[in-house]
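Each letter names a residue; structure tokens follow underneath. Both lines appear below:
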Amino acid sequence: MTDTQPDPDILRKFDEISVKFGRARTALGKVVFGQEEVIDLTLATLAAGGHGLLVGAPGLAKTLLVTSIADLMGLSAKRVQFTPDLMPGDVLGSEVLEESAEGRREFRFIPGPVFCQLLMADEINRASPRTQSALLQAMQEHHVTVAGARHDLPVPFHVLATQNPIEQEGTYPLPEAQLDRFLLEIDVNYPDIDAERRMLAATTGAQKSAVDAVMTAEDLMEAQKLVREMPIGEQVVEMILSITRAARPTSDAKDRVKKFVAWGPGPRASQAFSLAARSLALIDGRHAPSLDDVKRLAGPVLRHRMALNFAARSEGLTTDDFIKELVAGA
């Protein structure tokens, strides 16, 4: 927050980056139909420098969205299909013992698919918790440690993971610490009938839609820098803190929160609110986030950072319903 006049050079860069994100949003809308909110939230996640978790039933274009974003932004991308037998070394890489022509033996590190700029962790909740947790250090610290040696990841580095609804067979719940590393949890719902009609016409004909690069990795890093330089009003900050703190079942919480919330969001939720709100403003071409941005982000920021107890479930109360109550009371 600052009272000084914004730097004209920063404003120029802001407008240029905003235009490029607008082109990316339009291009994605031509290959992923009826998912405008999902597209906006995914782009905002990257602009904020974070990782995203896309949750939805199979066949809703989650994989297509991620691969298209990699093409749009010119990012080096790898895809890992998470399965129950996937091991941590299959993601991070491993050391192999090699013998040189002189007969000297030494270990050589072979990088895994995590060494890219955009990692697609497809159906992440089908792998064991041990393999899921292998991504923790990479997502938080942007390097991995294998056999005691540190290996830095490329810059920028983002994980966009897809997940099937947890009720489906053959899935493992992600550990809370792993979930908290995702800036946003983005629900991917079924498209409406008009969008599905357009999707049928576009995808079942002779011509197949493709996307061209409209941004570079350098543009994305510039956007991430600009997001952190954007001003954020005191009212927006107060709403962020109000919603986040109201979701915690502390001793001074409201009776309804104490009754129904098993555990609530930590400070990382407030950070996610602040960065994602500014990212949405950047994508829309606005120079500062609004209260509406915070309300719009409440579900994606909080739904994976809190849990309701059995009493809430027995009354048919969902996490999203409870978050709406929190927003209404903020």
Remarks:
- The two ends are 22 Å apart (CA to CA).
- The CA atoms of residues 97 and 107 lie 4 Å apart.
- The longest strand covers residues 93-99.
